[in-house]
Amino acid sequence: MPKLVKDETIVEDSWTLVDADADYPADAISAGDQLILPLALWQPQREVLLGKANVSVWLGSKQAPALLFGNALDDDSESVEFDINQLPLIAIDFPVFSDGRGYSYARQLRERYAFKGELRAIGDVLRDQMYFYKRCGFNSFAVRSDRDAEVAVAGLRDFSLSYQAARDEATAVIKSRHA
Amino acid sequence: MYRYDATDKQILSERVTQFRDQTKRFLAGELSDNEFLPLRLQNGLYIQRLAPMLRVAVPYGLYNSTQMRQLAHIARHYDKGYAHVSTRQNFQFNWPHLEDVPDILADLAQVDMHAIQTSGNCVRNITTDQYAGVAADEIEDPRPWCELLRQWSTFHPEFALLPRKFKIAVCATRDDRAAFQFHDIGVELKHDSSGQTQFDIYAGGGLGRTPVIAQLIRADLPWQHLLTYIEAILRVYNMHGNRENKFKARIKILVRALGVEAFREKVEKEWDYLRGGENTLDSAAVDYVKRHFVAPDYEQLDDSSANRELASQRMESPEFGRWLDKNIHAHRQPGYAVVNLALKPTGISPGDISDSQMDQVADLADEYSFGEMRNTHNQNIVFADVKKSDLYALWQALTGLRLATPNLGYLSDPICCPGGDYCALANAKSIPIAEAIQRKFDDIDYLYDLGPIDLNISGCMNACGHHHVGQIGILGVDKKGQEFYQVSLGGNMGREAAIAKILGPSFAQDEIPAVIEKILDTFVELREAEEHFLDTYKRVGIDPFKERVYAKAG
């Protein structure tokens, strides 16, 4: 099984990522599968799939979290029609590491939608962005397969202090140094 | 000024370690060019035409004599003996070796300096008025807010890889010296009726390929919310900004595409979630930073006796008098003055300063201005706190260093990017254009008669020389492999922000001085009394200039 960095340690990854253009009807999913479905596949079957502990969803870099609720990308509607915490995992794709949209998606999922499950960075996931991913709320990292996960783990600890608050445990230096 | 505490020092030292490791992995082939690119850019390192260029951050332009001496050391030891003051109030080195950069950064860190986020698609150096803290027309010192923005934006994890670069400026005066309306975000500091600090937040301004004046997004924002509100703007930009086409990637294009109302609505919606969050400021956080910006230990001086002394020195030396008239700015403290060191003597690339000049400027700052200096976006250096009784001695010292040309704000004091002589992006050279104009118009009395004229020169569309906002702007363009220059008129980087209009077809390099002469002749003929260039231009429009410049010979 491929390696995964989860909560700062290296583990075997039991989930299978389903390609964006794959056809994978809900009734073809067996109990033994653990699948991360593309949004386009997951969304139309949402009613059936929600609550299944072995089915999750991934967002592309142009797919903001609002789309999980069936809203258009530029629709900021607040109507949350389901409990997002029924999802065991949400993955966000970085097609190239330099596309930083996923950082904002992660913070929205954690803060605005209060998602508490596993939040995974997938795609062009590299050592030098690990610290930023973590601070935006990701807690698992599917490091690009040609790179050493051990090296990437070290990236989580590039800095021991942060000036500003984000979505991790770190206390903002701006607020804490005089407290 | 802001002094690093143990926390700042630790973050900076971890950064030095991080970049040393990144450079090592790049040189070992473990990082591809593409992977290393944003890492080195966010450390201010460009690969230029002849060598790498390292841009060192000078937060809001302010630094001290110890830092200046270290910069001089770097210029001498790792470079060719000079540095360049940029239009973002930073310092640039043109000749470092890539493998030396980790050592340069370690040297900088010794004096609490760095190159963090001076380039790349991230929040860049925060800029403000070069006279901050001493200007008579200031509502409140903007520097503590700039420092808070600096800290907040440093390694902000969500905005590390934006669609494009992002520039923020803060203005706290009636006369705008920060060009805040030409920034991705412009922050204007105000006081409400009870004296509480609040901000007007503008967004979507910028120069570059498509110059745009920023629009007001939020008025009267209470100070507690400065960071969270800006965070909301950046989140909307990060999610919705154009990432397909780098020429349409700045926030100004997004604001224009959505329309300011729709953009504001998105920001406000996002802010609903961020408002009151952990980046909300409290008085303890602000007071901690404000304590670093208290006024220096001024002497209680009698302004009128200082002025009498200056008047008699002026009688003895008309040259000193000219320098007083042109390069000195009023100070709010009686008996003190603000001094501009002019980095534009003819024959030197605008904004360049040698290592020995830097060392001596540091000594002069210690002797005359509490050991502090500021870089200006006009590419000069300011001593903010000089006793009037010291001005004559300082002038003599600066004259010896060729830093006392009395031309501040005149035609021979251009803003000018490094251009095609250094920059890999440039279409054309800009430094020789500045020099040709300085040489043609070398009669200082004629320049004084003309009055202040902003001449801004950029070697390409990226507009580092701010040509769009020059009263006379010159832009280098590429025409079938030849360097040509487009001239524009009527820009204004001040409060009455305006974008210059293009005069017409572009010119060859050797035609430019004659073109400028025709523009100036037209101005002199049409000018009423002591009218300034910009006022004449506004009154008569561009046509008379166009007719003269493009008139057929004979």
Offer a concise description of the structure.
Chain A is α/β, with parallel strands linked by helices. Helices cover 21% and strands 18% of the residues of chain A. Chain B is of the alpha+beta class.
Commentary on this structure:
- The complex is a heterodimer of chains A (179) and B (554).
- Chain A is of the alpha/beta class and 179 residues long.
- Chain A has one domain: TIM Barrel.
- Chain A is built from 6 helices and 8 strands; from the N terminus they run ββββααββαβαβαα.
- An 8-stranded mixed beta sheet of chain A has the order 2-1-8-7-6-5-4-3.
- In chain A, strand 6, helix 3 and strand 7 form a beta-alpha-beta unit.
- The N and C termini of chain A lie far apart (47 Å).
- With 554 residues, chain B is of the alpha+beta class.
- Chain B has 3 domains: 1-116 and 295-405, Sulfite Reductase Hemoprotein, domain 2; 134-291, Sulfite Reductase Hemoprotein, domain 1 (2-Layer Sandwich), CATH 3.30.413; 415-550, 2-Layer Sandwich (Sulfite Reductase Hemoprotein, domain 1), CATH 3.30.413.10.
- Helices cover 38% and strands 17% of the residues of chain B.
- Chain B contains 18 helices and 21 strands.
- Chain B has helices spanning 6-27, 33-41, 65-78, 101-110, 143-153, 226-240, 251-258, 260-274, 283-290, 303-316, 318-327, 355-368, 391-400, 431-440, 444-450, 512-526, 533-540, 543-550; strands at 45-47, 52-56, 62-64, 82-85, 91-93, 127-128, 168-171, 185-191, 197-203, 215-222, 328-330, 336-341, 352-354, 372-375, 381-387, 415-416, 455-458, 472-479, 482-489, 501-502, 507-508.
- In chain B, strands 16, 17, 18, 19, 20 and 21 form a 6-stranded mixed beta sheet that branches.
- In chain B, helix 1 (6-27) packs antiparallel against helix 2 (33-41) and helix 3 (65-78) runs antiparallel to helix 12.
- Chain B is globular.
- Chain B starts with 5 loop residues before the first helix and ends with a helix.
- Chains A and B meet through helix 3, helix 4 and helix 6 of A and helix 1, helix 2, helix 5, helix 6 and helix 8 of B.
